[in-house]
Amino acid sequence: MTCIIITYYNFFCFVDADDVLTKEEQINLLFNAKRKCERTIKSKHKIPEGYCLPEWDGIVCWPEGAPGRTVSTSCPVYIYDFNHKGHAYRQCDTNGSWELAASNNRTWANYSECAKFLAHYNQNQEREVFDRLYLIYTVGYSISLGSLMVATVILGYFRRLHCTRNYIHMHLFVSFMLRAVSIFVKDVVLYSGAALEQMERITVEDLKSITEAPPANKNQFIGCKVAVTLFLYFLATNYYWILVEGLYLHSLIFMTFFSDRKYLWGFTLIGWGVPAMFVAVWASVRATLADTECWDLSAGNLKWIVQIPILTAIVINFLLFLNIIRVLATKLRETNAGRCDTRQQYRKLLKSTLVLMPLFGVHYIVFMAMPYTEVSGVPWQIQMHYEMLFNSFQGFFVAIIYCFCNGEVQAEIKKSWSRRTLALDFKRKARSGSNTYSYGPMVSHTSVTNVTARGPLALHLTTRLGPVTINGHRNLPGYVKNGSVSENSIPSSGQELHIQEEEPSKNFQEEKTTPVVEEERETVM
Questions:
Q1: Which residues have a Cβ under 8 Å from the Cβ of 486 and sit 6 or more positions away?
Q2: Chain centroid offset of residue 460 CA
Q3: Cα separation of 141 and 389, whole Å?
Q4: Considering the entire predicted model, what is its pTM?
Q5: Residue partners of 20: CB distance under 8 A and separation at least 6
Q6: Contact predicate 317/360, CB 8 Å
Q7: Which of 79, 120, 451, 502, CA to CA, is 20 to 30 A from 430?
Q8: pLDDT score for 164
Q9: Level-2 CATH architecture, domain 126-405
Q10: Domain boundaries, the chain
């Protein structure tokens, strides 16, 4: 559990943090360090007389030591759970020999600073923290995945919602879903329960007792490499589709003549194509220069091939967010000029800001440059909970704002539900043989034979939910034409209700006249 949480965090926080590794990978790293130490010792031409000799103790390559002095060396970075800012210590006695521990007649060494993380993670309190963090991001990504699937189906099902703006929303939804799925797959492929327990039980003495490296079989890491590569790609595409949303909204506000259809393919290339390029470069370089076990291990500066483009997208999106907030504040001041109620202006601005924050991924900025190794205790827990909560639930927030709380989407759902209800009512009345049917305040005494004879027309009429059209003009509820009776009046008994069939294309064209900018403004305001 500890390994999963820290690995997840390292991928989402762009810092110089250590990567998690399995026991087999740890052993391979130890043997690489051992071979390097042996080469270093052989390369030494002369060691002063009376000095303690350099040697490999199974963990650290110790340099020569002056007689009667304490020798210190940095905790090795190739051991995952070590405190890499600490030091290990040995004592060289006056005879030029390393001091022995009286209890076991072995060379004495103090690894307490290095091994403090090993003991720290075994505490019950820390176990509870990691279990809680794992639960948070598992539940968060599961909820986000389910809500995004529903939102994507809704936007794809209703044809009137098919426009460039919603196409971009759907791409963003898909990127969030792929990000969540890749995280779950990566956890399953990289970390099994048995392997985690085995890694968490490893101690300093276990490391020293290793006598041979496990047989190297690169084929066993193919699935792991694919999982890590796909995870990085879908993570990058998610950041870049968030950037596309920011660019699109910014273009609608600041470009007078903006053809959204013209730029749709360009946005698609930015969202899916740009991440594919730098992730492919990273995979090629990694396979050529650092093809060691699974690619979840750190490979020095190679990580910046992926991290710099993602950091660039985050910073650009944050600047777009600040500029849009500035414009909204200016418009609110101009609209409410001369009014005394400034609190309402601030409330509107605050609402717009809160809506735009998850859409632009503003929360990435907060701890973006702060390594988790720089903090500890309560601040560390706050940072981890913050990252896990917002990263995992961001897709859920985006689905709510762009789909479930969108007035246009709600209107289409209501229309579809009303049409279905009216169609079922027609069928039920026809089967029962009744000569009347009702819908809302309207009552009709049309005969059953009439309904049957005009079946196609009746089915078409069940899809009409807008105001009644008379002489080519929309007659809204409450409107009374000169010399006529209000359309909301209930027909008298025996009076037949006649509704002319309207061409679908006309209704569709009227729906299309709503400006896209106004729809986006309603979303953020």
A1: 478, 479, 480
A2: 43
A3: 10
A4: 0.61
A5: 3, 4, 6, 7, 10, 80, 191, 296
A6: yes
A7: 502
A8: 85
A9: Up-down Bundle (1.20)
A10: 126-405, 413-524
